[in-house]
Write a structure and sequence with these properties.
69% of the residues lie in helices and 0% in strands. It has five helices and no strands. The two termini are 20 Å apart.
Length: 88
């Protein structure tokens, strides 16, 4: 599940999961490598939809997928904000 907290970690480390894991090697982690990949994929898909580079059908599927993988509308809004302003 993608949370706003995980998005902030992803943003802090600029999507560099290797840097995050090296710095947190011996500490308990709230994020797994799969979280980084899931966020990265959803950012890429959201970018396509937000820039109107995707078909209506694809856009609908992405919006539904966001609802399924994010814990709240606030998280979806934050993910869309990141997708619009970043290139990582």
């Amino acid at each position: 599940m993608i949370t706003k907290e995980k998005l902030k970690v992803y943003e802090k480390y600029k999507g560099q999961n290797d840097m995050f894991f090296r710095l947190h090697l011996f500490k308990p982690r709230r994020m797994q490598e799969s979280d980084f990949f899931k966020i990265q994929n959803m950012l890429q898909e959201a970018r396509l939809v937000n820039r109107k580079l995707a078909s209506e059908e694809y856009s609908s599927r992405v919006k539904q997928k966001l609802i399924e993988v994010c814990d709240s509308q606030e998280t979806i809004d934050y993910l869309n904000l990141l997708a619009n302003q970043t290139s990582f």
